[in-house]
Write a structure and sequence with these properties.
This is Olfactory receptor. It contains twelve helices and three strands; from the N terminus they run βαααβαααβαααααα. It is mainly α.
């Protein structure tokens, strides 16, 4: 049979109501800006303050970078599509989004395990912390997540590259999500969909189990000790466990629960790509005294009293001239 092969896909977006498009454009533009500012502020603070040059903050800076990547692979395209009538994406760009949607979250899953290992060593083996968490080990704890994410996304992309797309091309989402794209192929993709779910589910399950085991051992250690250092450890653990819950909640629904409705998937996808990256900086800084002190020092260094107002006065003076 003669078919017209698909060269682009149509992203249906979040809502079909045109009246909501300007409001959604404003809201998500502000949220994306907040993601960039918040996460880059954390990276800048950690790199500029020597007191934060520790394994834990090194891993936190990498998570902030991944959060920027998670938000950036689809959000700018979604915001731009809110201003156009026909929301299309080329086949190559769609594959790129599929590559990114598994690379960055897959890497973040494993780097959360790296952070759990760091906290386990710091709390359960404090005397050997600096020996175990050497510079070489820290680099390995970052390279391994990126390597796992790359292998994971390559295996996922292999399911899609050779699929024949010759008819339907409407993706009911604001980005090219692999399960939704494979359903548009001209062949029966039931087995492929199962393999995709199994692949993502395996990585998610292994990472989640490692995190549960790690934090269980840490909590048992914290509970058996009562000291000022353990109080600080509890505060740190609260932030870490909260981030794990926020990350794996939508991840489990999107990739492990294969029969959820499209509307549910859209809400969870927005939460996962927008709200999780914006909440992580808040969670890591609200109860972290070291981060707050470093940010105050950073502010006093670059935003001295009267400096901002002087810049504004100079700008206004130039405009009047």
């Amino acid at each position: 049979m003669n078919h017209s092969w698909v060269t682009e896909f149509v992203l249906l977006g979040l809502s079909s109501f045109k009246e909501l498009q300007p409001l959604l454009f404003l809201v998500f533009s502000l949220l994306y800006l907040a993601i960039l500012l918040g996460n880059f502020l954390i990276i800048l603070t950690m790199t500029s303050d020597s007191c934060l040059h520790t394994p834990m903050y090194f891993l936190l800076a990498n998570i902030s970078f991944i959060d920027v990547c998670v938000a950036s692979f689809a959000t700018p395209k979604m915001i731009a599509n809110l201003l156009v009538e026909r929301k299309t994406i080329s086949f190559e760009a769609c594959l790129t989004q599929i590559f990114c949607v598994h690379l960055f979250p897959g890497s973040e899953m494993v780097i959360l395990v790296s952070m759990a290992f760091d906290r386990y060593v710091a709390i359960c083996k404090p005397l050997h912390y600096m020996t175990i968490m050497s510079r070489r080990v820290c680099i390995i704890l970052v390279l391994v997540p990126w390597s796992v994410g790359f292998v994971h996304t390559t295996s996922q992309l292999a399911f899609t590259v050779n699929l024949p797309f010759c008819g339907l091309n409407q993706v009911d989402s604001f980005f090219c999500d692999l399960p939704l794209v494979t359903k548009l192929a001209c062949i029966d993709t039931y087995m492929i969909s199962l393999l995709i779910v199994a692949d993502s589910g395996f990585l998610t399950l292994i990472s989640f189990l490692l995190l549960v085991v790690s934090y269980t051992m840490i909590l048992i250690t914290v509970r058996s000790r009562s000291s000022a250092s353990m109080a600080k450890a509890r505060s740190t653990l609260t932030a870490h466990i909260t981030v794990v819950i926020l990350f794996f909640g939508p991840c489990i629904f999107i990739y492990v629960w294969p029969f959820s409705g499209y509307s549910v998937d859209k809400v969870l996808a927005v939460f996962y790509t927008i709200f999780t990256p914006i909440l992580n900086p808040v969670i890591y800084t609200v109860r972290n005294k070291e981060m707050k002190a470093a940010m105050v020092k950073l502010k006093s260094r670059y935003l001295k009293p009267g400096q901002v107002s002087a810049v504004i006065r100079n700008a206004l003076f130039l405009e009047t001239k």
